[in-house]
Amino acid sequence: MAPLTNPYEPELFRLCLQSLAALAGALPPCHTLPCCASQAEGRGSWDTEGHFNPQPVDTSGVTLPERLEFVVNKYAEHTHEKWSLDKFVNGWVHGEQLCEQTKVHPLLKPYRALAEKDKEAYRWAIKETLKTMLSFGWTSMAEQLAENYHDTWAKRKKAELETR
After folding, report:
1. If we measure between CA atoms, which residue out of 164, 155, 135, 153 comes closest to residue 64?
2. pLDDT at 84 over 90
3. Which of these, 19, 123, 133, lies nearest to 79 by C-alpha position?
């Protein structure tokens, strides 16, 4: 991989990540890259009674590289923060009991304050997404994400050590 010529800009990265996440969420299910179409073809079908029969990509044999765990955790936190912000913007508040009528939700709190089972729900979806990307052969994208997160951490750590 060629070295980056532009300096890392956290704000630009944040905006790009949000844009990519929004774009990914906006794509219709039928939108696939030609190289991956054969892997996704025939996924999900209808049974004889007309019920949807989901058939996701089998990721049981895919193991996430350890270096992607940081990406999983950071993206889980980002996803929760984004969800929380959307809720707050729409008038929701934190409360002990979920009530859609009064817009109260018990999970409207910082990610670090969530119960482990709630954090794992976020992490599970992200892990499955990354495992699917890897099974499609998108290793370079997953590797670049991991490398970028590591480089971002290393840059902050270096700056912190230099100020001591």
Report:
1. 135
2. yes
3. 123
Average pLDDT over residues 135-141: 72
CB 76 within 8 A of CB 21: no
Residues in the chain: 164
| β 93-94/52-53 pair status | unpaired
DSSP per-residue codes, 47-82: -TTS-EE------TT----GGGHHHHHHHHHHHHHH
d(CA 124, CA 150): 21
* Statement: the pTM of the whole predicted model exceeds 0.85: no
Secondary structure element (H or E) that encloses residue 133, with its range: helix 116-135
Highest mean predicted confidence (pLDDT) among 4-8, 33-37, 139-143: 139-143
Q: Give the span between the Cα atoms of 120 and 108, in whole angstroms.
A: 16
128 against 102, higher pLDDT: 102
pLDDT of 88 higher than 70: yes
First to last CA, the chain: 32
Of the candidates 29, 54, 30, the residue with the CA atom closest to the CA atom of residue 44: 54
